[in-house]
Automatic annotation (TrEMBL):
PROSITE patterns referenced in this protein's UniProt entry, alphabetically: HTH_GNTR (PS50949)
Provenance organism: Salinarimonas soli
GO MF annotation, one: DNA binding
Keyword annotations: DNA-binding, Transcription, Transcription regulation
Lineage: Bacteria, Pseudomonadati, Pseudomonadota, Alphaproteobacteria, Hyphomicrobiales
Pfam families on file: GntR (PF00392), UTRA (PF07702)
Top-level taxon of origin: Bacteria
UniProt protein name: GntR family transcriptional regulator
All residue ranges annotated as the HTH gntR-type domain in the record: 7-75
Length: 275
């Protein structure tokens, strides 16, 4: 079998089995066919089958029991972070508490023109650049490249960044994040990112570019993030407002949580979402 064809066959088999598990066709507790049986059924090599199963196991969708076989744990085995789109800054701190981070790079450098423009830096001003991989239950979630003006970045260390959410560090330095400009798109995983996120090269990723500003509209953080779409999703609640032909969809305030964990209705009026 041609070596260049194998990765695409691995991806197809992985997606096929994943769809059957998530969709319920293969329920929790079901025993998968053996590797030779799957290879014969789908017309691929055992190496392809093994790699596809490796991906499902990393997601927590299956478990291998030596001597007994491979069993489905169910879609609940793969935890996903769901972000409240209307309350993004608060969500970032909460996600920092629920996940772990591994710091890959940390240093100071001259910014690229696009970064300098996004942060509205003065000529010659440097930035602190960091690269982190965030995980949930030891499974990679995101690949984060962050740029912070040097004057702000100098207020914390690499050890701080490896253990504390960046937004908390910014606030500790006296920065008050007021608003953020964010763009969401999609891209494909290159070799380095694919290795860190434990996905195949060329896998689809969620791409987020965000610049955070303080009360004086100065850029305090620029983020270029890549997320595994099977681990991260956005949620937004909308409500129809207006009358007649002007009737439209509008975001509503973030859903609040009562002490018992049950959701409560938003307290603000429709069309007046909180910042």
């Amino acid at each position: 079998m041609h070596a260049g064809v194998e990765p695409s066959k691995t991806r197809r088999l992985y997606l096929l089995l994943r769809e059957r598990i998530v969709g319920g066709a293969l329920p929790a507790g079901a025993r998968l066919s053996s590797e030779p049986e799957l290879a014969a059924l789908h017309g691929v090599s055992r190496v392809t089958v093994r790699r596809a199963l490796d991906g499902l196991e990393r997601e927590g969708l299956i478990r291998r029991q030596p001597g007994a076989g491979t069993f489905v744990t169910g879609a609940d085995g793969a935890k996903t972070i769901v972000a409240d789109f209307a309350n993004m800054l608060a969500h970032l701190v909460e996600m920092g508490r629920r996940t772990r981070v591994r710091l890959i790079a940390f240093g100071y450098e001259a910014p690229l023109p696009a970064v300098a423009e996004a942060l509205r830096l003065s000529p010659g001003e440097r930035v602190q650049r960091s690269v982190r991989v965030r995980t949930i239950d030891d499974v990679p979630l995101s690949y984060l490249v962050t740029f912070v003006p040097e004057g702000i970045g100098a207020t914390y260390s690499d050890e701080d960044l490896a253990s504390t959410p960046l937004l908390s560090l910014l606030e500790r330095s006296g920065v008050k994040a007021e608003r953020a400009s964010q763009t969401i798109g999609a891209t494909l995983a290159g070799p380095e990112v694919a290795e860190h996120l434990a996905v195949e090269v060329g896998s689809a990723l969620l791409s987020i570019t965000r610049t955070v500003f303080d009360a004086e509209d100065r850029g305090v953080e620029h983020l270029e993030a890549l997320y595994r779409p099977d681990r991260y999703a956005f949620q937004m609640e909308l409500m129809r407002i207006g009358r007649g032909p002007e009737r439209r969809w509008s975001p509503v305030a973030p859903t609040a949580f009562k002490a018992n964990g049950r959701r409560s209705r938003p307290s603000s009026s429709p069309g007046s979402p909180r910042a």
